[in-house]
Each structure stands twice: as C-alpha cells, then as structure tokens.
Amino acid sequence: MSVLSEHLIEEIKELPAKYPQPRSAVMPALDLAQEELGYLTPEAMTEVAEALMLDPGYVEGVATFYTLFHHEPTGKHRFYMCTNLACMLRGSDEVVTRLREAIGVRGPGEVSKDGMFSYEEVECLGACEYAPMCRIDHRYEYDLTVVKIDQIVNDCRLPRLYQRTASAPRAASADAPRPKPATRRAPRAKKTDGGAISES
Amino acid sequence: MSPNQPALARLRGTTGGPVVTEHFGTADLHKLEVYEANGGYAALRKAMLEMEPAAIVGEVKASGLRGRGGAGFATGVKWSFINRAAPGEKYVVVNADESEPGTAKDRYILENSPHMVLEGIMIAAYAIGANQAWVYIRGEYDGPYRMLVEAIAEARAKGYLGPAPFGKDYPLDVQLYRGHGAYICGEETALLESLEGKRAQPRSRPPFPAVKGAWGRPTLLNNVETLATVPWILNHGAAEYVKFGTEKSPGTRLLTVSGNVQKPGVYEVELGKTFRHVIMELAGGPPEGRRVKVFWPGGSSAPVLPESMLDTTTDMEALAAARSMGGSGGVVVMDDTHCVVKAAYRLLKFYAHESCGKCTPCRVGGDWAVRTYERILANQGSQTELDTLIRVSDGLQNGRCLCGLGDSAGWVIDSTIRHFRDEYEDHTLRHECNVGAVAAHA
C-alpha cells in the first residue's frame, strides 16, 4: 500500500521528460508529494525515488537541503515569518511573539491544538519595502502589526472567507463582492476594534 | 486587474523612471497587449530581424551594463564568453532566486513587467545562440511565478515564444523552475546544481558556466534586473544608456531601501547619486527624531557604512573605495535606536543557517561566530570573545571558500567592528548596551 496516490505517482513518472536530464525532476516531484501529504515522510520520499528511478538516500538528501520541504506535520495554515534584518528593524520580533500567543504554540514548528496553524521563522522573503511581512501558505501579507496578525489568524479560522482572499489565480471572479479595496484581506468577522490600523 | 499584481496604490517605489521602471505604474502593464502598446517587444523584433547576434553583444558591451545580481560583472563581456558557433545546446539561465536580505527589486520588476524580463531573456538567448532559457525563481515568490506563467502563455500564443518568432527560423522557449528556499542558490554554480536536481552546493571553477554550465552545456547566467535592462538598451542605443551614471558604472539601478526609513521602496537611481540622496530624500530619512546610524549599501553581504559616509556615491568604484560594494542594491538603513552588535548577530545567524556545508571555514566559522555573539549578548563576553570574532571573521574571508557566502559573513563581523568598535567593547568588556544612551545624546 503506497502512501502516494496512484495518479500522483503516474504524474511524477512523467516529469523527467520535461527536463534536459531526468534528475531535475526531483524537486518538482517532491513538491507534488508534499502538496498531497502536507509533509514528506520517509515512505513518500522512497516512493518518489522509485518513481524517478533514483536512490532513496539521494532524494532524501535533496529534500532535507531545502527549507520549503517539511519533514514534520504542519498546521493547515503555515506562517513563514520573516525575521531577517529589514523586518527585525521594523518590529518582526513583536509580531512573531503575538502570533505565538494568537495560535497558541510555544515555538516554530509546533502545530496548534486544533491543527490549524504552525509557523516558522524564515530568512528574507524579498518584500523588504513592506516590512515586517510574512508568507502565509501561498500569499504574502505586508505591513504587519500585532493587531493585523490577530486579524489574519481570525480570518484563517473562517475557511470560506479565507478561500476568497487567498491569492490563487481563480480568486479573480470572487473579487467583486469584496467590500473594501484598501486591503486584500477578508473583512473582519469578530474584531471590530481594529479600525485604527494604519495601512502605510 | 489580475489578482497577482499588487494594486498600484500599494506599489512602493519608482514609477515612470528613466530606464527599467519607465512604464511601471501603467495599469495592466503585465499584460502583453499593454506592454506592446508601451513599446514592448520592439527590441526583440529589432534584435531578431535587423541585428546580427554579434552586434547585439557589442551593443550590450558598449552600454557598460554590469550584472545587477551582486558581483557586478560586465554583462556584454559575459555574453561574449559563449561561443555561439559551437554545436549543441546552449542555455540561458535567469537568476530569479532573489534572497539577499534587504533586496526586493527583482520581485518588483517581475510583478510590474514580467514581459520586459521575458523580452530581455529572449534577446540574450538569440544573441548567444540558445534556444531554451530557464528561469530559476525562488519558491516563495508565488505571485511573480504566476505572473511569469501567464506572461509566457501570452508570448506563446502570440508566437514570440515558439518555433518561429517574427517569422524567423529560430525556435525560442522559456521554462520555469522553482527553488525551494536556499539562499545559496543565488550563487550561480549552486543555482545550476539545484536546477539539475541536486543539493545546491557551489562548484569549483573552472570550468565556468560559459563553458560547462547547466546540464554540462554552455550557459549564460544573468540576474532579472540585468536582463530587464537589455530591451531599453537596444531600443535607445548604448550611447543613450551611458549618459546615465558614471563613466565606469553607467546607467541606473534599482535600490531597495528598507529598514528605518519613512518611505521604504524600490527606487530606480542613477549610479553616482549619493546614499544621502537615496536614503534622506527618496526614502524620506529615518523616523522623526532619529538619526541614521549605519546602512548596508548593497544587501546584507555588503560591508556596512556609518552615517558619516552617507555622501558615498552609489557607483561601484566609490563603494569599493569605501571598502564596501554595490552588491544586490539592497539598502538597509538602521537608526540610532538599534544595536549594531545585535544586528550583526542576526545576520550571522542567517549566514550560519544558509551555509551549504561544503567548505569548512564557512560551515564551522558561521556557527562559531553565532555562539560567540550569543555569549557576548548574554553578558559573558571578554577580550577573548572580541578576539575570537576578529579571528573567525578573518578565517571566513579572502577566498578560503568556493563561493562568497563565507566572505559575506566575515564582512558583517569585520565591517561592524571596524566602524563600531566602541559598541562591541561596551558589550564584551563592560557588558552594557549603550544604544539608548547614545540616542538620548543625539
């Protein structure tokens, strides 16, 4: 019984043809596996290796080199908090501390009790003019404050609203009903006392 | 508007600038038709239909354009290293793995005008005799990635990418490859290793990528901003480009100004302007009542400069004379409410974490420095710790490693001690941080 679905393994087997040399398929393949499972287990890495006809040790070696591959379970929503110089100078430490309280974890990598959240402290994400900032799942959030991080966490707890604002390509059609254009986030559901957050 | 493009109101940086950002700020510039309406793809058409490949390389050489990724190597010279007549595949590989702390310019370009980057890539590919280009884009750049995907699809539909662009029998193709979070991939040979599906560890050179690069084939590696500048140069001519900037560093470049400034942003600046102009005027200077204490002129890897050197100019020669470098153009400004030792500690943690582990000085030295900083900041320092830092810094530098990551880590220690020895001594010898006191005096 394999841990990766059959059609995914088929998909992985087709990847090497896209590259001048088949080995280049290893990261895209691990990407697909991680997308399906949430994180990479030893079994998953072995199956990727078999599908690509590579040594399992080699695949694990690649998977452990890059920080975007996870080897432990993560929360449904992953926060990648930039704490490098430009963000640090604008208060990222305070924001990270607040995030820990908001999602109820003690440190990076820990998954919140409801399984919804985990966070990591990462290096510069290349959006320094919006510092402090972070990446949540597949989107960037800018100009973070302790108030704003609370709102983002609350938004994530509302699955449908969150879906609508995630910057996936499909989200375009959902643009219309959004009430205020000033921010890309969903309207706040619970907190109404945050009206004073500055956007600049 | 595409959901991938940030609302224009949210753009922080130059729009309508002299060269690269000339059309930035135009609504929907990321769409092919809008890009073309603003003169897009004219340079590619001209290059493919009216120019000999050697003439394109010659024009880029004459422009004096230098790589904007960090090393600042002459772009035209780099292009001329590839033997166009040699049989077999050649590749253009684009370094879009922007991860130098304090640098966001490539993201800014990709989000505003992905077609401009594509056009530069295609011109480069045609000039060096490559039919395929690979863009290695960092994995965290979801938005820019999707914008490139859309742009490539549009260019394919229009025939600019495909078997016969502009009716010329010269197939062109651009493919994307996503990185997975490794700073070292900004180093060109590490990037190639990663592109080949390996752990990203730099190769020893020679052979240089121009001879043996991606998948063992001759490869041209260029940064996003470098290639984005090329269409403008072909449209207006090298003679126009050299009117900007200084004699040895012609043109403009994008500086990402971040940290303690009132208007952080990505600014297109003519080389030769002073950092005082960039930091105090363009970026509005530090917040009310505070002073610039120190700034990194070219990403965290560039040795720091203190406030007294704000009049240093942005061209590479002036920066070299100031014992720093232009690097990636990431200008990080720190004001007098922050501690230099703590900032250096944060950066050393970064370099220690991102060391690929191939060369011993960098693998061991980074961690060693981090541990020393931790002792100092826990008020357990003494003269020994200060000496250790200087020794480790020396061990990291001077070409003891295959790539520049170790040097960069060493420069952080070295340059902060050089300019702020007092602060280090306060921490190590007297176990006190006088940042607050200094600010009060100022």
What features would you describe in this structure?
The complex is a heterodimer of chains A (200) and B (442). Helix content of chain A is 37%, strand content 9%. With 200 residues, chain A is an alpha+beta fold. Chain A has two domains: 6-63, Orthogonal Bundle (Arc Repressor Mutant, subunit A); 77-175, Glutaredoxin. In chain A, a hairpin with a 2-residue loop joins strand 3 (134-136) and strand 4. Chain A is elongated. Mean pLDDT of chain B is 95; it is low at 438-442. In chain B, helix 14 runs parallel beside helix 16, helix 15 (383-396) packs across helix 16 and helix 16 packs across helix 17. Chain B is globular. Chain B is built from 18 helices and nine strands. Chain B has three domains: 8-241, Rossmann fold; 252-335, Ubiquitin-like (UB roll), CATH 3.10.20.600; 340-441, NADH-ubiquinone oxidoreductase 51kDa subunit, iron-sulphur binding domain (de novo design (two linked rop proteins)), CATH 1.20.1440. At the A-B interface, helix 2 and helix 5 of A face helix 5, helix 7, strand 3, strand 5 and strand 9 of B.
Ordered list of secondary-structure elements with their pairings:
The complex is a heterodimer of chains A (200) and B (442).
Chain A (H helix, E strand, L loop, with lengths): L5 H9 L11 H12 L4 H11 L3 H8 L13 E6 L2 H4 L3 H12 L13 E6 L11 E3 L2 E3 L4 H11 L2 H7 L35
Parallel strand pairs in A: 1-2
Antiparallel strand pairs in A: 1-3, 3-4
Helix pairs in contact in A: 1-3, 2-3, 3-4, 6-7
Chain B lengths: L31 H6 L4 H9 L2 H11 L11 H6 L10 E6 L8 H8 L1 H15 L3 E6 L4 H17 L14 E6 L9 H8 L23 E5 H13 L1 H4 L10 E8 L5 E6 L4 H8 L9 E5 L8 E2 L9 H6 L8 E6 L4 H15 L5 H18 L5 H14 L8 H15 L1 H9 L5 H7 L1
Helix pairs in contact in B: 2-6, 2-9, 3-6, 5-6, 6-9, 13-14, 13-16, 14-15, 14-16, 15-16, 16-17
By helix and strand content of chain B, what is the structural category?
alpha/beta
Major sheet characteristics of chain B: 5 strands, mixed
CATH architecture of the largest domain in chain A, by name, is 3-Layer(aba) Sandwich
Helical segment count of chain B = 18
